[in-house]
Structure formats: structure tokens, C-alpha cells
Amino acid sequence: MHQLSLFEAAPPSVEPTSGVRRIALDAGSWLEHHPGWMTETEDLFAELMHDAGWEQRTRWMFDRRVTEPRLTAEYPDAAEAPRSLQGIAERLSDCFGTRYDKLWVNLYRSHRDSTSWHGDHIGKIQPQSIVPVLSLGATRRFLIRPKDGGASVSLQPASGDLIVMGGRAQVDWRHSVPKQATPAGPRISINFAPRW
Question: Is the pTM of this model over 0.70?
Fold first, then answer.
């Protein structure tokens, strides 16, 4: 079966990109950075900032519950997401042969917000996956490193850039968005996943 390239039959807001960077993390894991994959991001950014059902979540870390230093909104059924997000999910589903029918969206309100090292939940469900993440708003560092520690790979996705983690990246690797000293405005990451 022919698998569509990211650059075939793009909807108006999605452009073919040059300078795609593919990184073989190890024999079974990979990462891609597609700069400028989506153009005209301002309207979607404003819509999500205003309309997404942002929640302040907590989680257990070691022996205590802590407040996550970011806000999160979730669409367990992509059909209930804004129409523009539904179209992007369909596009990515066609590209990667995976039905992305669940979305969650993270808001990093400033350079002080972050997320610690983690693998996405899908890594507990299946050993191999393809996880696209679309960035909107401010540029922030994205890091990924081996699960057992070691040197990290650092990317700087800007608004409209697509990061794709594939293979065993959710099982054998951990990723994060660290706090930073340099002031930055809000950044939204849109994560696409199959419903499990």
C-alpha cells in the first residue's frame, strides 16, 4: 500500500517543507523535524487560547502530588475538536497510516512552564508508534534522551513546526520541554494519538 508523503495533497494551511531533519536515535527509534509544516498559525493559536477547556492538572511525583507547570486540554474524540484540528488529524492519519482520533493540547504560558522527562502513554500500550506534535506560538526547546540517561538531542521548534517521534521512541527514550531563563511568550503543543 502506498503511504502518502507529508508533501502530497496538502490542505491550504499545510505547506511542503524543505530542510526536513530526520534523526536516527538508535536502531529502533527516530525523530523528524519538519520546519514550517503549517503556515498561518495565528488563527488556530488564538482559537485554542480562547476556547480550549484548559485544566490545571496534578500528578504524583515520588511520594507527593504536585501541580503540573503547564495547562492541558484534551479531546478524547477528535470529532469533538475544532474543525481545523480535525483536518490536521486527518492529514496526519493519511501520511502515517495511523488513525489519529485523540488529541491533547498543552499550553506553556511562559518560559517558566515546562514538562519533565517522560514517554507518552502510548508507549505502555504498543512497543512502536508514530507520534506527531505540532507547535504553535513561541519557540521553545524540545529535548529527547535515552530512557536510562545519556546525551540529549535538542530541537527548537517554531510556530508551525512539526516534530514526529517514531519507532520505539516512546518506550526507549524520554522527552521534555524544560524551563528556560530567557523570557518567552506562550507556546501550544498539539499531540496526536490513536485512541487506546
Answer: yes
State the Cα–Cα distance between residues 102 and 49, nearest whole angstrom.
Answer: 19
In contact, 71 and 109? CB cutoff 8 Å: yes
* Strands 71-75 and 64-67, bridge-based pairing: unpaired
Half-sphere exposure of 159 (CA within 13 A, CB side): 17
The three grid cell numbers given for residue 13, joined into one nine-digit string: 494551511
How do 142-146 and 187-193 pair as beta strands?
unpaired
First and final CA of the chain: distance in angstroms? Answer: 24
Q: Where are the alpha helices (DSSP H) in 27-82?
A: 42-51
* pLDDT per position as a tens digit, 14-57: 555 668 999 999 999 999 999 999 999 999 999 999 999 999 98
Which residue has cell 511525583?
61
Q: Cell for 182?
A: 530567557
Contact at 8 Å (CB) between 152 and 144?
yes
Residue closest to 118 by CA, chosen among 165, 85, 55: 165
Query: If we measure between CA atoms, which residue out of 16, 161, 159 comes closest to residue 5?
Result: 16
